[in-house]
Amino acid sequence: MTVEIEIIAAGRPPRLEDRPLEKRIGLVILATDHTTEVDFQRMVASDRLGVYVSRIHYANPVTPENLLRMQPSLTEGAALILPDEALDAIVYSCTSASVVIGDRNIEAAIHAAKPGVPVVTPTAAAVTGLKALGARRISVLTPYTIETSRPMADYFVELGFAIDRFTCLGLTDDREMARIAPDEILAFARQALAPQSDALFISCTAVRAAEVAARIEAEIGKPVVTSNLATAWACLRLCGDDRARPELGQLMTKPYREG
């Protein structure tokens, strides 16, 4: 039996707001990434600030050559985030690839799709964060091999940092990097810090270090910057969120100043 339902057209169109949310952050992440979205939902997303994600192809192992192969995908990845709409910031979420591709090349590739948007890389955000914390002597912990870690060491040295200790865990699959237990991150962080360092940087957007950054700081007595903590901090500040959130780590109490 068919029931005839009268459908009535509203007498006027609905009023539309300029945006569903006040601020918009785009994430360009690896197809294999388990961690960035989770960290940004926890630290950044709110009823004021939306996080919108695009994934690009990536094939393990993590080597400088494989990382460099992502460069041609960056423009298309950025273009797929809310096409033809402006973003307030956009992150390319791969630390080791940011080193081998280069911060400026990443910015140019993303601007080809999203002109004028502030582009955040984990490396540039980490440098800005370390400077905000007054750190000049640093220790570094990465999940990578020595081959993949060496360009990162060069990156920080070329930007004026003294590296007191550089420790790598020898992994080559970013999915395994995401499976490092938080307590293991804490244990390796204790060993990675040289006593004379001003801060510890823990690299890799796959590693779940941001969720234990404050715990590590409490253990080692020094500031901790992680890849996802740095990019989340930069994006929040670029979107006008200046709240101090010490429960996430000392970096989240600092203002953001580029350059």
Automatic annotation (TrEMBL):
Pfam family, one: Amdase
Keyword check for Oxidoreductase: no
Source organism, top-level taxon: Bacteria
InterPro entries tied to this protein: Ectoine_EutA, Iso_Racemase_Enz_sf, MaiA/AMDase
Keywords: Isomerase
E.C. number(s) listed in UniProt: 5.2.1.1
Residue ranges of the TM segments: none
UniProt-recorded Gene Ontology molecular function terms: maleate isomerase activity
Record flagged with keyword Manganese: no
Protein name per UniProt: Maleate isomerase
Organism expressing this protein natively: Rhizobium esperanzae
